[in-house]
Amino acid sequence: MITYEMLKHLGPAANALLLILICKCFASADIPNLWRQAMVFPIPKPHEWRCQLQITHPITLLEVIQKSFVKLFYNRLSSLLAAHNVLTGGNFAGLPRGTC
Asked: Looking at the keywords, is Nucleotidyltransferase present (predicted)?
């Protein structure tokens, strides 16, 4: 339950420790179980919902540190995936220079 405001006010030493923690998770391939979980909420489109998931926009909510971890992971992985053309078809939309 660490908020963005809490992280924003961390000093240089605490920021460095947080970065060390995240880097150690990458290096050891040991990701905390709570960082592997997320809450997905279906937001209804501007139509009558009738409890049909296909007319919703799913939104995933992550904890702030978890979001930082995922962003760092994405930044490292996306450049490799794009450079080596690993993803094809519509699967590359989230990569650099990709489109939806």
From this structure: yes
Q: Name the pTM for this structure.
A: 0.59
CA torsion through residues 67, 24, 19, 85, sign: negative
The rounded Cα 77 to chain-centroid distance in angstroms is 12
Query: Tokens representing 29?
Result: 């391939």
Rounded to the nearest 5 degrees, what angle is found at the Cα of 36, between the Cα atoms of 33 and 37? Answer: 100
Angular region, 75: left φ>0, alpha ψ -120 to 50, beta rest: alpha
pLDDT digits (tens, 9 = 90+) for 64-73: 888 888 888 8
Helices 12-28 and 64-83: crossing angle in degrees, nearest 10, is 50
- What pLDDT digit, counting tens, does each position of 10-27 carry? 899 998 998 898 889 888
CA distances from 75 to 4, 6, 16, 71 (A): 20, 23, 19, 6
